[in-house]
Amino acid sequence: MEIAIISHDGKKAEMVQFLNEHKNLLDSKHIELISTGTTGTKAEKAGFKVTKVLSGPLGGDAQIAARVAEGKTQMVLFFRDPLEKHPHEPDIFMLMRLCDVYDVPLATNPATAELLIKAI
Ligand SMILES: O=C(CO)COP(=O)(O)O
Question: Which residues form the MGS-like domain (predicted)?
Fold first, then answer.
């Protein structure tokens, strides 16, 4: 199962904390993590194996959106920062829209991610 992990800068520490809290599950061989660039680098530094795409503002959200549309990514954990402006907002909305189009579970905050991960 491919899970995308994405976090805005103000939420990266929470993402790393979340990953560490679920290390046993996320390290297991039936889970593959994919990530936008900078989030992926943080995850790698925390010891996770991650396939990285471009950084979000450079097209990473759009690349993950394409994987959702292609049926490759089965879950998206996206810790958004609602208090910041993002130059790539159209890409962010495209990703969320395609999760809805293809009925792919999408968590946009840690509390929902916690619920989704418990369902695996
Ligand atoms: O901008 C992002 C999501 O919209 C995240 O991108 P980075 O992981 O490269 O910071």
Answer: 1-120
